[in-house]
């Protein structure tokens, strides 16, 4: 199981959404913080990771994969509130590996490094599924900081780390907005 938690830092970010959101100061989360975000999930369904070894200072969102591999959880602070996603996860198990970029951190894999993470959304047009191809272990924060280099990205960028962080945050926010969890 992989887990990642939001960084403890002061960053003000304007995002290209209908409403501008600011990311607030994030203190280290505890188990009760997280359980409170997923009240409809039992402890077994959540399979919370051990929070003790987490380096809070290098992570932009909390993400972990249920041991089943088919469910994932994401938590990120937005305007001093924690917002969360419970996602379905499908690995790219096609016969032929293909080059694919993580929609959130832009790490480019030459084979099966991403998975499709999706959620059902109810809207005026009925119930539909939205999804992104994202790093299969939700380790985007490590990827943009070059702390997880295996496999290395196929298309290295010269973008400054602050810009990568902003882009990652905006991508998660955009997904959350589409998933109606920012309302
Ligand atoms: Zn990624």
Give an overview of the whole structure.
The protein is α+β, with helices and mostly antiparallel strands and 183 residues long. The chain has one domain (3-178). The chain is built from four helices and eight strands. It has helices at residues 31-37, 43-46, 140-144, 161-178; strands spanning 3-4, 62-65, 71-78, 81-91, 100-101, 108-109, 114-123, 126-135. The strands form two sheets. A six-stranded antiparallel beta sheet has the order 1-2-3-4-7-8, covered by helices on one side. Strands 5-6 form a two-stranded antiparallel sheet. It is globular. Mean pLDDT is 83; it is low at 5-20. The site of zinc ion has 8 residues, from strand 8 and helix 3.
Query: How many helices in DSSP terms?
Result: 4
The description of the largest β-sheet is: 6 strands, antiparallel
- Which compounds are bound in this model? zinc ion
Globular, elongated, flat, extended or rod-shaped: what is the shape? globular
Low-confidence stretches: 5-20
Strand order of the largest sheet: 1-2-3-4-7-8
Number of domains: 1
SSE topology string: EHHEEEEEEEHH
Helix content: 10-25%
Report the C-alpha radius of gyration, rounded.
Answer: 16 Å
Q: How much of the sequence is in beta strands?
A: 25-35%
Distance between the termini: 30 Å
Count of β-strands: 8
Query: What do the pLDDT scores average to?
Result: 83
* SSE-based structural type: alpha+beta
């Amino acid at each position: 199981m992989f887990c990642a938690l939001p960084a403890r830092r002061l960053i003000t970010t304007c995002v290209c959404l209908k409403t501008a959101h600011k990311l607030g100061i994030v203190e280290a989360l505890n188990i009760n913080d997280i359980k409170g975000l997923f009240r409809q999930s039992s402890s077994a369904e959540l399979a919370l990771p051990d929070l003790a070894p987490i380096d809070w200072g290098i992570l932009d969102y909390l993400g972990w994969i249920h041991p089943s591999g088919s469910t994932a959880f994401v938590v990120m602070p937005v305007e001093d509130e924690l917002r969360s996603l419970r996602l379905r996860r499908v690995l790219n198990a096609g016969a032929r590996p293909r080059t694919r970029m993580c929609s959130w951190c832009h790490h480019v894999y030459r084979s099966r490094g991403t998975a499709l993470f999706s959620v059902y959304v109810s809207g005026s047009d009925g119930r539909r599924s939205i999804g992104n191809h994202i790093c299969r272990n939700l380790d985007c924060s490590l990827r943009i900081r070059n702390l997880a280099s295996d496999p290395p990205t196929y298309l290295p960028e010269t973008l400054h780390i602050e810009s990568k962080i902003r882009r990652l945050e905006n991508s998660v926010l955009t997904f959350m907005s589409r998933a109606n969890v920012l309302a």
